[in-house]
Amino acid sequence: MKKYKTLTYIVMIFFLIGGCKTTEKKVTENENSIEIIISCEEDSDLEQYINDGWKIQKEYSEEKVCSWKTVAASKDCDLEKDKGCKLVQPDKIGKETIYLLEK
User: Fold this and answer.
1) Percentages helix, strand, coil for the chain, rounded to the nearest 5?
2) Which end of the chain is less congested by CB atoms within 10 angstroms, N or C?
3) How far apart are CA 45 and CA 93, in angstroms?
4) For residue range 31-61, what is the model confidence (pLDDT) as tens digits?
5) Which of 22, 57, 52 has its CA nearest to residue 37?
């Protein structure tokens, strides 16, 4: 039982660190620089910025959890009746890329 409790805490920590939903596009704009964050392979306006004369100065990528799923903690666990035996774990892993553009 202690083993499942520890596993549950670890999963909860990853859930809190990763956030509930990571699919996002964030644009921060100054006069001469723009930061664009693209998560989980979503569509972006990056090409449009490059066509408008912006140049990529820095690019950084890291793995990110795109979605989560609920699984049973043990074989005899009934997910519909026993809510205490649910574990949340990563379902899809994607990439988050941060671009720093300057004019």
Assistant:
1) 25, 45, 30
2) N
3) 22
4) 788 999 999 988 888 899 999 999 999 999 9
5) 22
Domain map (residue ranges) of the chain = 32-102
Q: Is the pLDDT of residue 16 over 60?
A: no
If we measure between CA atoms, which residue out of 65, 89, 86 comes closest to residue 74? 86
Residue reference for tokens 């959890």: 65
**DSSP secondary structure letter of residue 43:** -
Rounded-to-integer distance, Cα 21 and Cα 25, Å: 12
Instruction: Report pTM.
Output: 0.58
Which residue type sits at 21?
A: K
| pLDDT band (50, 70, 90) for residue 77 | confident
